[in-house]
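Recap slide: Flagellar P-ring protein, sequence and predicted structure.
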Amino acid sequence: MLFSRLCLTLLAAFMALVPADAHAERIRDLGQFEGLRANQLTGYGIVVGLQGTGDDNLEYVREAMRGVSGRLGLQLPPGVSPNLRNAAAVIITAELPAFSKPGQRIDITVSTLGQARSLRGGALVLAPLYGADGQIYAMAQGNVAVGGLGVSGRDGSQVSVNVSTVGRIADGATVEKGVATGFDREGTLRFNLHQADFLTAARVRDAVNGMYPGMAKVADGVSIELALPFGNDERSAALAAIEMLPVTPAPVAAKVIINSRTGTVVINEAVRLAPAAISHGKLVIRIDENPTVVQPEPFANGETAIEEDTQITIEEADSRVALFPGAASLNEIVDALNLLGVGASDLVVILESMKQAGALQAEMVVI
């Protein structure tokens, strides 16, 4: 028993001495292969079956319904303008994944184009979806699922929950044509990092060449060129193995992100400070008005008057001095700023002043 405990203790100590690769990421999480991406599709359609919440005065809907009726062999008499409160014009959007084949199904989103109040309970009539080249890649149709709810009364009062003018149709479109990726024709394939960094690109190259010697080379700070073997089966096996290789990304650049609209400040762990001392105080000015009504003596033929009484008070909050040692870590920065007791807006001013003084070694990004 004692021997087992001793072994466990020695094993734990040994594991503590082994450097943990805690920040290693899979190559597939650092970027994507060039050309193997989704393509955006869009289209125009008509949603029918609404309960009086459609576009009754939108001419687009009337013309579209004439076209739908014509395809079904029904011609509206000349001069007849139907009142279509149960139909709505919608814009259809979808993403066509890479390697999509005819017959596969994709999800679509429908959004009202005109003044329709809700798409709840509606059904999308068959509509084509176009790519950026103007060609048809999918056909959409199905019942619209709406997560929002809107209710209105006769007096004009309205209550709405979420958005009822946007809906979604799961598997609502059928792929009619795929997009060529060049995967089976090109001799090389590029892997593009999500964020440009020469060190990360070099580490990805070394990881790939460790498994397939001479396959990868760095093209620039974003791209790594891969000389893939010919044959789809060999290429697929090589890419599947490359995607799962662990790579430790380069340390992030020191940045301070400031959201000027919400006052949010984010400081990453790479931020370091030069030695600096900061004193921050607040000046509060308070003005109190206490007017007094003065009444004249009885039978004095006087007039009621108001005597102004203004009191001005100036208070200066206690100012504390926080000392930032050189190369302070993120924890030390947060502790020192908490000691000052500053709010978000004051924190922005302090960080900008430290940047001007040369004490903040980071890039400030205002969004």
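Helices lie at 2-17, 59-71, 198-211, 232-243, 330-340, 344-357.
The chain has three domains: 39-149+160-175, 188-247, 255-366.
(End of recap.)
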